Amino acid sequence: MKSERDRTAGPAGFETMAIHGPSEERPYPYRAVSPPIVHSSTFRFEDIDAMRTEMDDAREGIFYSRRNNPTSLDAEQRLAMLEGCDNGALFACGMAAITTTVLSRVEAGDHVAVFKDIYGGAVNFFTNVLPRYGVAVTWVDTNDYAGLESALQPNTKAIYFESPTNPMLKIVDLERMGEIGRRHGAALIFDNTLATPYLQRPLDWGIDGVVYSATKYLCGHSDLIMGAATGAAEWMDGVHNTRYVFGGVIDPHSAWLFSRSLATLAVRMERHCDNAERLAEFLVSHPQVERVQFPALAEPEQRALAERQMRRYGAMIGFEVKGGGDRADRVVSRLRHVCLGPSLGGIESLIVEPRYATHRRMTREQREALGIGEGMLRLSVGMESVDDLIADFTQALEG
Ligand SMILES: Cc1ncc(COP(=O)(O)O)c(C=O)c1O
Hints:
This protein is an alpha/beta fold. Helices cover 39% and strands 15% of the residues. A seven-stranded mixed beta sheet has the order 1-7-6-5-4-2-3, sandwiched between helices. α1 (14-20) runs antiparallel to α3 (70-83) and α13 (324-334) packs across α15 (386-398). The structure holds pyridoxal-5'-phosphate. Pyridoxal-5'-phosphate (PLP) binds at residues 93-95, 119, 121, 162, 166, 191, 193, 213, 215, 225, 227.
């Protein structure tokens, strides 16, 4: 019997797209269900015309793997499907995605505005690198929308921010930011690492370009360093052309691992979020805990914003223990299942004191200005049995 399959049917659900990716429209060679890993740096052609056609197609042309590779293209299209956009790009790490995307939008003489609560590596880039190339940077208090508008100038080309922020988990109003960006003609570049496209789709709210540390939830197993960017086709042309120059690409095997990880993103995020909600509830009622940062426990306006633009609250928790830094050190040193480590978004729970890791280059006063006290802990809630995690924190907080 002949196939009656309609390969042009409308968009599928998140999990279906994550599992099948572009393969329903573009079946893989050898009838494979898993994307083939094409370990080839370059590609051969039947004739010169065929080669020229492929080389002229910057978006999908396959002639040299620094430009495009079949395994990476498949992974990039899978991510773009989940994000609801045309195109994606994978990078050697999140910082390569951030720097390449920003540099694809600005030139000497331009200005960018940046919210203060962003990842430390990005702070370093905007503070110590971008100004050296003639791009002025203005820092704005996160969520000060009036302050942002007054910081914008005729030459402001981009506004950079993230939400939820790390580690204070502030929620920024994406729709409002989209509206401000459009009115002032400034592109919005947004780091969606903590939410992932499963919990939040920034492009739906008017954001122009999204960046990720794919090292975190997208890859999700604390075994890869990778970055990603997504956006509309024309936006991504700039990103791809800049990546072709700077060269922060990944190898085909890593691209395959990325696709494999993406296939389970939805189930992983659900479990991460279930565990985080239980742990946040536990921590907020514990007598040794001073305060807890978690969008579900935030003030009503912030909580409502999270509920409007996110599917769930995410799986990062910030909390401050009573007794300051010494007490926080003791809690961390007593934890059994929860690993002491600086990353986030992996299957295992990871905890860190921002004063020793993400914010170690700041003075105590600078940290306190951001709301980060000496007893603050940042927890990336993993997928372990939640009762084990609660028991682990019980003995660590009470010991
Ligand atoms: C929110 C956020 N963005 C970007 C990065 C940078 O990503 P990578 O370490 O993959 O370069 C990190 C790293 O911790 C991060 O937490």
